[in-house]
Structure formats: structure tokens, C-alpha cells
Amino acid sequence: MEMDFKFFQDAYWKLQINGEPGRDIIEDLLPFIQKLDPVKDHDIFYPQGIFNQKELNLFFITKFTVTMIEVGNSSRITTWKTKEISSCELTTIDYYEAQLKINFKDGNAIELNSKSDTSHTWSSKFKEKILDIYKILNF
Questions:
Q1: Is the pTM of this model over 0.70?
Q2: Of 1, 82, 105, 122, which is most buried with the most CB atoms under 10 A?
Q3: Rounded Cα distance, 100 and 72, in Å
Q4: pLDDT tens digits, residue range 68-85?
């Protein structure tokens, strides 16, 4: 089973965000974000914080953009063009863990970690997603 956006849409009702049921927040947000081009046309979907009851950030990666949706009572959407990336730092730690830091020219940075971004059950699959993100952003 893959953690893609369709799977997320089918499973979101079970999620906790910062210890609170995320169903209401996500249910209101989904119809809006489904209309966004980076969401409709993404190559890689990465839900940071899923299944660990922490903050939830949804990443939609294309060859041209990185879109981050910070899910919460006041959700925030940020999109960077990939040409705005100044560097990507990939660290592989073990079979289950990889870290990726994406630095942008505007000073912002995104840090992804396959072990802390999800539950133990999903960490090896998130490692593969991080490797795929690194490949798409560096080629």
C-alpha cells in the first residue's frame, strides 16, 4: 500500500492533529485544495506528521513547484518554484530513516525526516518518498 493523496483522502477521518480530531479541519480544507493545480498535478505527495498526532503538513511536489499546506484551524498554503531552491541536503541514516533539508533562496527551509514524520509502520515507505523528492528536485 502506498501513501498517496487518494489513500490520505480515504483515511483522514482517523487522524489526530496535535492530539485533537483532525476530521473537521481536513474535511473543510479538502474541497478547496483539490482545486489547486499543484495538488491536482503533483508527482509526489508527502504528509508530514501523519499517524503521529503532531502537526500535519501536506507537501505536493512537482518538477516545478514545492507546495506546503500547513493544516490547522487557520491553514496556510505556501508554494515555491523549484528554481527558488538554493540547496537540498540528503542524509541517509539507516534502513528506515532519511532526512532531507530543502533550503530556499528566501531563507525558508523545509526539513523532512522519514522516522519522525510518521509512525514506525510507515517510516521505510517515507524514506523512499524522501529519496524520490530528492531525485525530482535535483534533476
A1: yes
A2: 122
A3: 24
A4: 999 988 899 999 999 999
Beta strands in the chain (DSSP E): 16-17, 20-21, 44-48, 56-61, 65-71, 76-81, 85-92, 98-104, 109-113
Structural contact between residues 122 and 51, judged by C-beta atoms closer than 8 angstroms? yes
- Mean pLDDT in the chain? 92
Per-residue pLDDT at 36: 93
The domains found in the chain, sorted by start residue, are 5-137 (2.30.29)
C-alpha cell at 45: 505527495
| Residue where the block lists cell 525530482 | 136
Closest C-alpha to 73, from 13, 17, 5: 17
Cell reading at 83: 528554481
How many helices and strands (H and E) does the chain possess?
4, 9
